[in-house]
Amino acid sequence: MTVIYVDTxxxxxxxxxxxxxxxxxRLAGEPLKRLRFALGAVLGGGYAVAIFLPGxxxxxxxxxRFAAAVLMVLAAFWGSRRLGRQVLIFFxxxxxxAGGVLAISMLxxxxxxxxxxxxxxxxxxxIVLLSAAGCYVLITLLFQRTARHSGLRRELVPAVLTxxxxxxxxxxxVDTG
Length: 177
Known about the structure:
Strand order of the largest sheet: 1-2
Strand content: 5-15%
Distance between the termini: 57 Å
């Protein structure tokens, strides 16, 4: 029988969710509203714990999982004009993040256990959090590099806008669409 400690389960999931929300915001160029991200992370950590509570087994269903993830993103990014985009970025990062943490934990000799669809680790919490933070940095650097526009490829061009005699010089992104 596997023993799962509620405090560790909550803390691990809340911290990973916070890093995912923070990374999603940075990638999308959203303002960093850390208290909102913390609220979303607390909801995610609470959901991970709720799955194990008696009588709440229905939360394991895919529709409930999807709704919980969307609720986390709504709590973190409510009011954003690109809310749908944030949901997609969050899901993509979640997949990448889970793969990275799983790879690091397997290299460490101890795997993550999946119980009721919630990831839990018997490893030292410090190792898991350090690997999660490492994945956060790696994913952020990777996505920032691939999403960066440059003047060398002529994606960015100088532009001057004029309206009623007022002129503003700015840099514009060339759009082929």
